[in-house]
């Protein structure tokens, strides 16, 4: 999958201002909800534009609380059963994520990003477990 835009900056497309080439990743589509954990990068059908596949990081799982980054009507949200909270790594003004449309249904998940393919310097397994979250609740 080719990743366009700046919503996952700086993890993806860190050279977006200097090149026309997008980062590319391998997606595991078989049973995409299996083993879902905070920090994973997933693909899903956009709740606002179902024809579009979005890529974001899982920030909270069902039953967990999350403090929103802004734009969402509630400051603290408990993620409902069967849903997750996803966010882009980039600035809030460059991402449409759960801060815009709220928790997403797990039924919208289409895959887990498992391998960086391009650029070559990032080639290898995506080490999502190394992502450091700032405490937000």
UniProtKB/TrEMBL annotation:
Record's bilayer topology term: Single-pass membrane protein
Single Gene Ontology BP annotation: signal peptide processing
Keywords, in A-Z order: Hydrolase, Membrane, Protease, Transmembrane, Transmembrane helix
Superkingdom as given in the UniProt entry: Eukaryota
Gene3D superfamilies tied to this protein: Umud Fragment, subunit A (2.10.109.10)
Cross-referenced CDD domains: S26_SPase_I
Cellular component aspect of the GO annotation: mitochondrial inner membrane peptidase complex
Places the protein is found: Membrane
Gene Ontology MF: a single term: serine-type endopeptidase activity
Boundaries of every Peptidase S26 domain copy: 3-70
Protein name per UniProt: LexA/Signal peptidase
């Amino acid at each position: 999958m080719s990743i366009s835009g700046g919503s996952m900056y700086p993890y993806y497309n860190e050279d977006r201002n200097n090149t026309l080439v997008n980062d590319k990743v391998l997606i595991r589509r078989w049973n995409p909800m299996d083993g879902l954990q905070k920090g994973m990068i997933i693909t899903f059908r956009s709740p606002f534009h179902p024809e579009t596949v979005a890529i974001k990081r899982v920030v909270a799982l069902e039953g967990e609380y999350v403090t929103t980054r802004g734009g969402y009507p509630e400051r603290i949200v408990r993620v409902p059963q069967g849903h997750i909270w996803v966010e882009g790594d980039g600035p809030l003004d460059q991402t449409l994520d759960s801060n815009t449309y709220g928790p997403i249904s797990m039924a919208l998940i289409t895959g887990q990003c498992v391998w960086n393919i391009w650029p070559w310097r990032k080639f290898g397994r995506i080490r999502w477990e190394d992502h450091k979250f700032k405490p937000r609740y």
